[in-house]
Amino acid sequence: MRILGLDTSGKTASVAILDTEKKILLGEHTIYTNRTHSQVIMPMCKQLLQDCNLTLEEIDMLSVSVGPGSYTGLRIGIAAVQGMAMVKKMPCAGVSTLEAMACRILNFPAVLSVMHARQNLFYAALFQTETACERIFPDELLSVEEIAERIQQEKTLLVTGEGAEEFLRQYPEKFLRLAPEHLRLQSAAGVCLCAASHPELKNSAAALTASYLQAVQIQKKKTEK
């Protein structure tokens, strides 16, 4: 099965194609950009398909990170996948941004994926990746202190994600290690790997929905009133 994956949940815009039968990542394009993802993500998909000598008709499934992440970014990625899927009537899979980042790091006892939300709050999830990416606790919006409680039993821990450096600055424990730069940010390769390992996520385009883990700003203002 060939999976085309997209990630627009953060500063990177990323697309990748994974062949699960051959167990080969056929290609990946990732850029760190200040331009809106709506300007770059579809041209990137088109270019990657061309580079891999494939057409969209030869893709079996689409996958996309559905959160946590940028409110606008997630909507752009989901809309792009829905547009392609509905035209070609293709199945889709929405995957966790945090799990997709951890899926790229195998052979490590524990991986903590974090994205900085604000102040001392982080989107976080913990995974065991020694043989496969297995979730230890779910995606949550947590304070540094709350994360500390959940990881205190881990003797060796690798921290990844675009909030990794800020988290280590606020929680400078010796047993925490920072993932290398090329494995720290969002990647569509991780989205593809995550989708491949969770066949139960395969669904229709209409079923895709973003997981923000907190109320968006408009909802917050209404609650405050």
Query: Low-confidence segments, ≥5 residues, pLDDT <50?
Result: 216-225
Question: What form results from the Cα inertia axes?
Answer: globular
Helix content: 25-40%
Q: Judging by the overall fold, what is the CATH architecture of the largest domain? A: 2-Layer Sandwich
Task: Tell me the CATH superfamily of the largest domain.
Answer: ATPase, nucleotide binding domain
Integer-rounded radius of gyration: 17 Å
The spatial strand order of the largest sheet comes to: 3-2-1-4-5
Portion of residues in beta strands equals 25-35%
Structural class: alpha/beta
CA(first)-CA(last) distance: 50 Å
CATH class of the largest domain equals: Alpha Beta
The biggest sheet, with number of strands, parallel, antiparallel or mixed sense and barrel status, is: 5 strands, mixed
Count of helical regions: 7
Order of helices and strands: EEEHEHEHEEEHEHEHH
Count of folded domains: 2
CATH topology of the largest domain: Nucleotidyltransferase, domain 5
Structure description:
The protein is an alpha/beta fold. The protein has 2 domains: 2-97 and 186-224, ATPase, nucleotide binding domain (Nucleotidyltransferase, domain 5, 2-Layer Sandwich); 98-183, Nucleotidyltransferase, domain 5 (2-Layer Sandwich), CATH 3.30.420. It contains 7 helices and 10 strands. It has a 5-stranded mixed β-sheet with strand order 3-2-1-4-5, with helices on both faces. A 5-stranded mixed β-sheet has the order 8-7-6-9-10. A hairpin with a 2-residue loop joins strand 6 and strand 7 (121-128). Mean pLDDT is 92; it is low at 216-225.
